[in-house]
């Protein structure tokens, strides 16, 4: 059976796996983005706090994905829970780092001007600092999403959802007729999803970042 025949014959299952994969990554990125930006906001003003936040999230990223899932399964069980926990933890570093860098890079004179016209600290953060820090934050979100696309495939090890199941089925049956087709279908599906997500982020950037800031 050729690769395209295999894809045509399993189109419904592959689409379902692709939807689950994209949904898991998207939902985990929403959570990771909220947590990452909050951590950045809470730590960027103090050098030691920002460095600690970046170092801590970087340390999490050094844990092999299989090892982290293996540690989580006894605590959360198989399926969605360990997948979501692992993906959120892995997605934090690029977002936290870029949030800290972006917020520290805001021109102090603009913040002082906002303070001079009576803006509260919260208003300055929401209306001046975060909008100006948005380009690097969005870059961090893009990088984290590309990372999670690949890491989410490993979640099949813990019975997680997504295209990783197709890859694992192929790897576990190497030598069989469709083993290579299964691995190739899962891999190409993840690549296509990663490209689609990145295109969406580029569009979001064009819609939310003024031309002068975008450069």
Automatic annotation (TrEMBL):
Q: Which PROSITE patterns match?
A: ABC_TM1 (PS50928)
Q: Which UniProt keywords apply?
A: Membrane, Transmembrane, Transmembrane helix, Transport
Show the InterPro entries listed in the entry: ABC_transp_perm/SBD, MetI-like, MetI-like_sf
Query: Topology versus the membrane, per the UniProt entry?
Result: Multi-pass membrane protein
Q: Which CDD domains match?
A: TM_PBP2
Transmembrane annotation, as ranges: 24-44, 51-73, 79-96, 137-159, 179-204
ABC transmembrane type-1 domain spans which residues?
18-201
| Pfam families from the UniProt entry | BPD_transp_1
List the subcellular locations. Cell membrane; Membrane
PANTHER family hit by this protein: GLYCINE BETAINE/L-PROLINE TRANSPORT SYSTEM PERMEASE PROTEIN PROW, OSMOPROTECTANT IMPORT PERMEASE PROTEIN OSMW
Q: Which family does it belong to?
A: Belongs to the binding-protein-dependent transport system permease family.
Protein's name in the database: ABC transporter permease
